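ok so i was messing around last nite and threw this chain in just to see what happens. nothing serious, just curious
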Amino acid sequence: MEESRIVLFDGICNYCNRMINFAIRNDKKALLKFAALQSATGKQLQEKFQIDKNAESLILLDNGVAYTHSDAALRIAKYLRWPVKMLYIFILIPHFIRQPIYKWIARNRYKWFGQRESCMIPGPDIRARFLD
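result:
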């Protein structure tokens, strides 16, 4: 399985699904692939990269390195089209400031945005970008 740039996301989280759809719309070069954390591929990659199964995080696997939380979100922006890629500048904000904010949003995402009964099913136009 090619692991150059894979985004693992919470497939039942409404907010996460919106963010993935946003990334797909702004990744015109199709540099990113996607898998839900709940999928067989997502679970396999979490195990391979020794990522906590309870991590409330978006995960970016980028050329063999696993990034979580705000590190993942900001590094994903790097691969999106202009002007969205400008969001990567926030990587300059110190980690000890970014991480608590990200984790606070992650902890409250179901309460604020809701959740689905099952993972999203990608349409035929983007199906090839999903690994599971």
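not much to say yet. The first strand starts at residue 5 and ends at 9.
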